From TrEMBL:
Domain 4Fe-4S Mo/W bis-MGD-type: 44-100
Name under which the protein is recorded: Molybdopterin oxidoreductase family protein
Source organism of this protein record: Streptomyces flavotricini
Coiled coil: none
The keyword Calcium is annotated on this UniProt entry: no
Entry keyword set: 4Fe-4S, Iron, Iron-sulfur, Metal-binding
Region (Disordered): 1-36, 374-394, 731-772
Alphabetized Pfam families for the sequence: Molybdop_Fe4S4, Molybdopterin, Molydop_binding
Ranges of compositional bias, category Low complexity: 1-12
Length: 772
C-alpha cells in the first residue's frame, strides 16, 4: 500500500468532544486515515464494511483481489473504531475463503449414518418432508426454529416470519437468549425501551465511569479507547468484577465481589446514597415512579450486611456510593457478568435504580448502557425471532400488535401463533418429545448452552434436525441436514451495535459455488411449504424495505433508515421515524421515557442466592467468560491460525492459596460433571472463585459444567456462577479439533498449537504464583 501525498489529502475534521487530547495535532502533522490510502496492486478494491464479531461493530475495509476474492483487511477510519481493530477483527477475513468452508449440502437420514454431500433439491425436499411428517403427526408446534444474533437484521426478521407464517409454529427463539435478554427485560420494565441510553462518545464526557460485569479489554477491545479517553480527561473508573481483568487492573476502584451477589452490592450502594442525602430528589419527583418502595427495600441492605454477602469491605461500598453519586456526570455500563444469573433482570434493575436515584440519566456524559455481546446482539432481538416478540419490538400477546403485523404479512390474526418458549426450554421440550423437529440458524448450542449432557440428550431425542452454517459446528455435526450458507462478507445487510446504531455491511465477494444465502434458503423452504407468496424476497434489500414498514410507528422504529442513508452517514441510531430524522443517539434527554406516562418505572430488587447451593463438597464459585482471541462457541475463531496460536485451549484460573503451580492439571468438578484444565495461577481472582473460558467443546467445555437454571423473567441461563470444587489430576483433557465435512481434515496450520499444555500468560493475569 502506498500513501497519497499528505498535502493533497487533508485530514477529515474531528469532533473535539470525541477526539482524545493531542489527536488533532498528530493528524494535522500528517497522520493519514485508511480512506486516504490507495491500493498499489492493480485491480485491488477496498470494500467498506464492519466486523462480523462483537457489538462494537468496528469499521473495516475488506481487500478484494482482481479475481473478486477477499484476501486481507484494512482498518477503517469509521467513528466507532477510528482505525482500530482487535485480534479477531484483524483475522476475520480469513474465514471467507477458508479450507473448512462448507460448499455443498450434507445429509443423512439417520444419525447412525455418515454424512454425504447431496444436491440442494434433495436436502430441501428431505427437510420439507420431515417438517410435514412431524407436524402432520404431532401438530405445528412439534417443530421449532432457533435463530442467531450474529445474523443481519434482515435475516432475523425472516427467521421470525418464517417460523410463524411458513412453519406456523410458536416455537421460535434465538441465541441472544444466552446473551442480552436480562438487560432487555430490565430496560423494558424501567424505561419502556430496550437499548443503551447513550452513545459510546458520551463516555468521553463523563466524570465517573462504572463498569459492572464486563471484561471490556478482552470482550470489546476497541471500546477500550473510550474508557482511556475518559481517564485522560480525569474520569474516575470503577470496575465491579470478581476477577482483576485488564480493565479492573487500571481502575481507581476495583470491587472484587463474589459471583452472584451483584444486586446485594448495588442495593447497598444505593442505601449509602440515600443515607447520606446524595439522591437527586427533584429528578426523582419529576421523572420516576416507585421510588418510595425502592428506598424502603434498600434500607434493608446496609453496607455491613452486603459486605458479608459480597465478600468485599463495607468501606468500599461507601466509597463507590460517594464517588458515583458525587460526580457531576456519571455513567454505568454492564454486560454478561451481571446478566448471566437467575436474578439477571434484577441485577440490571439495581444498576438502573442507582443511576436514576442520582439523576445520572439522559445527559451527555451521564447515563446507562448495556454492552451487547454479538455483532447484532441489539438488532437481533428487535424484529421478531425472540419467542415473545414481533417485528418492531411488538408483543406477540398484544391484540393490537398482532393485528398490525398480520395486516403487513397478509395473514389472518387467527393464523398467527402465540408466544413460544426460550432456547433452553426448547431443549427440555425436545427431551420430553414435545418438540420433535428443529432448524437451527447461526448458533452452536452444543458449546454455548449450559449443562451439555442435557443439551446433547435433547438434540439426540429430536427426530429431525437441520442446521445452517458456513463451517461444520459441533451442533451441525449432530444434524440430519446441514445447509452451507454465506459468510458476512458474501451478502449485505444491517446490524445494530451496542449503541443501537444501525450500520451497513457490504458484500465483498461472491459466495463459493454451491453456497446460498440464508435468505435464499429460508425463502425456498417457505415456497416448498406452500407459503412462497409471503417470501418473495430476491435479497436483503427487499427484506429491509418490509422490515422498515413493519417497524414503523413502534418504539424500535427503523422506518427512516435506508441503505443509502447508512452509506452516507456511517450509521443511524434508532428510533428514526422518517427519512428526515437524524436518529436518536441519546435517549431521555427531555426527561421522558417510552412508558405512556413518560416516567422511569423503578423496580424493587431483592437479592437471593444463586440456584446451585454451596456445600462442603462444592465450596467454590465457578464463573465463565470470553478471552480476547475467541468468540462465542469458537466455531469461527478456533479455525484461524493466529487466534488458535494466541489462545490454543481453555484453562482454569485459580488463586495461589490453592497450592497449584502454573500448568498443573486441575480437575474442576460441579454437580454436572468434571473436566481437567491446566492451571493459570494468579492473584487476580478471588480465592473462593475459579474461572474457565467457554469457547471450546467437550471434553474441554466450560458449559459441560455450568447449571441450566434460568432467570424466571428473562429465561437467561445462570452461566456466571455455579458451585464447584477443584482437585489435583494426572493430565489435562485434550482439546478436540473442530469438526470438518466428509473428505476434509482439520486445517493443520490452525491446529498445530492445540496440544500446548500450558495456559496463556498476559493479558489474563497480572502475574503467577509459584511454589518454592
Amino acid at each position: 500500500m502506498t500513501a497519497t501525498d499528505p498535502a493533497k489529502a487533508a485530514a477529515p475534521p474531528l469532533d473535539p468532544s470525541i477526539a482524545p487530547p493531542g489527536t488533532r495535532n498528530f493528524r494535522d502533522a500528517g497522520g493519514i486515515p485508511a480512506d486516504q490510502w490507495h491500493a498499489d496492486q492493480n485491480g485491488e478494491t477496498l470494500v467498506p464494511t464492519h466486523c462480523c464479531f462483537c457489538g462494537v461493530q468496528c469499521g473495516m475495509y475488506l481487500r478484494v483481489d482482481r479475481g473478486g476474492k477477499v484476501f486481507g483487511v484494512e482498518p477503517r477510519n469509521h467513528d466507532i473504531n477510528r482505525m482500530r481493530l482487535c485480534p479477531k477483527g484483524i483475522n476475520a477475513y480469513q474465514q471467507v475463503n477458508h479450507p473448512d468452508r462448507l460448499t455443498a449440502p450434507l445429509m443423512r437420514r439417520s444419525r447412525d449414518e455418515e454424512f454425504r454431500e447431496c444436491s440442494w433439491d434433495e436436502a430441501l425436499d428431505f427437510t420439507v418432508s420431515e417438517i410435514r411428517r412431524i407436524q402432520g403427526a404431532y401438530g405445528n408446534d412439534a417443530f421449532g426454529l432457533l435463530g442467531g444474533a450474529s445474523l443481519f437484521s434482515e435475516k432475523t426478521y425472516l427467521v421470525g416470519k418464517f417460523a410463524r407464517v411458513a412453519l406456523k409454529t410458536k416455537h421460535v427463539d434465538y441465541n441472544g437468549r444466552l446473551c442480552m435478554v436480562s438487560a432487555a427485560g430490565a430496560n423494558k420494565l424501567a424505561f419502556g425501551i430496550d437499548r443503551a441510553g447513550n452513545p459510546f462518545s458520551d463516555i468521553l464526557l463523563t466524570n465517573c465511569l462504572l463498569i459492572a460485569g464486563s471484561n471490556v479489554g478482552e470482550c470489546f477491545p476497541v471500546m477500550t479507547q473510550y474508557l482511556w479517553g475518559a481517564r485522560d480527561r480525569g474520569a474516575t473508573l470503577i470496575v465491579v468484577d470478581p476477577r482483576e481483568t485488564a480493565i479492573a487492573r487500571t481502575a481507581d476502584i476495583h470491587v472484587a465481589i463474589k459471583p452472584g451477589t451483584d444486586s446485594a452490592f448495588f442495593n447497598a450502594v444505593l442505601h449509602v446514597v440515600v443515607a447520606e442525602g446524595l439522591t437527586d430528589e427533584a429528578y426523582l419527583a419529576a421523572h420516576a415512579t416507585g421510588w418510595d418502595e425502592v428506598k424502603a427495600t434498600v434500607a434493608q441492605y446496609p453496607p455491613a450486611r452486603s459486605a458479608e454477602i459480597c465478600g468485599v469491605p463495607a468501606e468500599q461500598i461507601v466509597q463507590v456510593a460517594r464517588v458515583f453519586a458525587g460526580a457531576g456526570k456519571a455513567m454505568a455500563w454492564h454486560a454478561r457478568g451481571i446478566e448471566h444469573h437467575s436474578q439477571g433482570v434484577e441485577n440490571c434493575l439495581s444498576v438502573i435504580n442507582l443511576c436514576v436515584a442520582t439523576g445520572h440519566l439522559g445527559k451527555p456524559g451521564a447515563g446507562y448502557g448495556t454492552i451487547t455481546g454479538q455483532g447484532n446482539g441489539q438488532g437481533g432481538r428487535e424484529h421478531g425471532q425472540k419467542s415473545d416478540l414481533l417485528p418492531g419490538g411488538r408483543s406477540i400477546t398484544n391484540p393490537e400488535h398482532r393485528a398490525q403485523i398480520c395486516r403487513i404479512w397478509g395473514i389472518e390474526e387467527s393464523e398467527l401463533p402465540g408466544a413460544g418458549t426460550s432456547m433452553m426450554e426448547m431443549v427440555w421440550q425436545m427431551q420430553r418429545r414435545e418438540i420433535r423437529g428443529l432448524i437451527g440458524i447461526c448458533n452452536n448450542p452444543f458449546v454455548s448452552l449450559p449443562n451439555y449432557a442435557v443439551v446433547k440428550d435433547g438434540y439426540d431425542t429430536a427426530e429431525f434436525h437441520a442446521q445452517f452454517d458456513f463451517f461444520l459446528s459441533e451442533t451441525a455435526a449432530n444434524a440430519h441436514v446441514v445447509f452451507p450458507v454465506t459468510t458476512w462478507a458474501e451478502d449485505e445487510g444491517v446490524m445494530a451495535n451496542a449503541e443501537a446504531r444501525v450500520v451497513k455491511h457490504n458484500k465483498a465477494q461472491e459466495p463459493p459455488a454451491g453456497v446460498r444465502t440464508d435468505t435464499w434458503v429460508i425463502c425456498e423452504l417457505a415456497r416448498r411449504l406452500g407459503a412462497g407468496q409471503h417470501f418473495e424476497f430476491p435479497g436483503s434489500r427487499e427484506v429491509f424495505e418490509e422490515l422498515r414498514i413493519a417497524s414503523a410507528g413502534t418504539v424500535n422504529d427503523y422506518y427512516g433508515i435506508t441503505y443509502d442513508r447508512l452509506e452516507e452517514t456511517g450509521g443511524i441510531a434508532w428510533p428514526c421515524p422518517s427519512t428526515e430524522h437524524p436518529g436518536t443517539p441519546r435517549l431521555f434527554e427531555d426527561g421522558r421515557t417510552y412508558h405512556p406516562d413518560g416516567k422511569v418505572h423503578l423496580q424493587v430488587v431483592e437479592w437471593h442466592p444463586p440456584m446451585d447451593p454451596y456445600t462442603d463438597e462444592f465450596p467454590l464459585s465457578l464463573t465463565t467468560g470470553r478471552t480476547v482471541a475467541h468468540f462465542l462457541s469458537g466455531n469461527q475463531t478456533r479455525r484461524l491460525g493466529a487466534l488458535v496460536e494466541q489462545t490454543p485451549r481453555p484453562w482454569v484460573e485459580v488463586h495461589p492459596s490453592h497450592g497449584f503451580r502454573n500448568g498443573d492439571p486441575v480437575r474442576v468438578v460441579t454437580r454436572r460433571g468434571s473436566e481437567v484444565f491446566p492451571a493459570l495461577v494468579t492473584e487476580a481472582i478471588r480465592p473462593d472463585t475459579v474461572f474457565i473460558p467457554y469457547h471450546w467443546p467437550v471434553p474441554t467445555a466450560a458449559n459441560a459444567l455450568t447449571i441450566d437454571a434460568l432467570d424466571p423473567r428473562s429465561k437467561i441461563p445462570e452461566y456466571k456462577v455455579c458451585a464447584a470444587r477443584i482437585e489435583a489430576a494426572e493430565r489435562v483433557d485434550e482439546v478436540p479439533a473442530p469438526p470438518t465435512a466428509p473428505g476434509h481434515e482439520a486445517y493443520p496450520e490452525a491446529q498445530a498449537s492445540r496440544t500446548d499444555r500450558l495456559p496463556p500468560t498476559s493479558p489474563q493475569g497480572r502475574g503467577t504464583a509459584e511454589r518454592s
